[in-house]
Amino acid sequence: MASRPLVRVTAPIALLLLGVGCRERRSVPPAGGYEEHLSAGGLAPPTAKLRNPHARDKRSAADGATLFTAMNCDGCHGGGGAGWVGPSLADGRWRYGGTDGALFQSIFDGRPHGMPAFGGILSPDAIWKLVTYVQSLEPPADVPTERWP
């Protein structure tokens, strides 16, 4: 009788367990990526100017919310993107920029210290739906932490 694994390891968790993004901390990331950057899944990041084809589309935001849960983004960023182990995505404060293009690049390429790259896992259209969802999140009335410098 074949044994079954006790824990199901998803792709994002597997990347974290393998140490993706676990390098020495930098106070300010260099423009256009970081020294340890590896293209997601061996795919080159898009080079054209990044423009969200689903901006402010409620159906795409709903699809993005489904993807957010399906890809276990809420496992780090908390339910509704309110923050947990990973930073809040709803408070309107961004370490790497809050534009649609900056959010796309963060999801596609990943970021140092824990954010895995999803560009080799998700299609650009799916990433844009995640961006649309994140941009649709309402900031809380009271933000309990300090702003990034």
Explain how this protein is built.
By secondary structure, the protein is mostly helical. It has five helices and no strands. It has a domain at 57-141: Cytochrome c-like domain (Cytochrome Bc1 Complex, Chain D, domain 2, Orthogonal Bundle). The longest helix has 13 residues, at 58-70. The relative contact order is 0.22.
Write the layout of secondary structure elements.
Layout: H1 11-17, H2 58-70, H3 74-77, H4 100-109, H5 124-136
Helix pairs in contact: 2-5, 4-5
Morphology call:
globular
Task: Give the N-terminus to C-terminus distance in angstroms.
Answer: 57 Å
Strand proportion, as a percent range, falls in under 5%
Low-confidence stretches: 12-32
* Main sheet properties: none
Q: Give the integer mean of the pLDDT values.
A: 77
- The helix-and-strand class reads mainly alpha
In CATH, the topology of the domain at 57-141 is named Cytochrome Bc1 Complex, Chain D, domain 2
Number of strands: 0
CATH class of the domain at 57-141: Mainly Alpha
Number of helices: 5
Helix content: 25-40%
Going by CATH, the homologous superfamily of the domain at 57-141 would be: Cytochrome c-like domain
Tell me the series of helices and strands, N- to C-terminal. Answer: HHHHH
What is the radius of gyration? 16 Å
CATH architecture call of the domain at 57-141 = Orthogonal Bundle
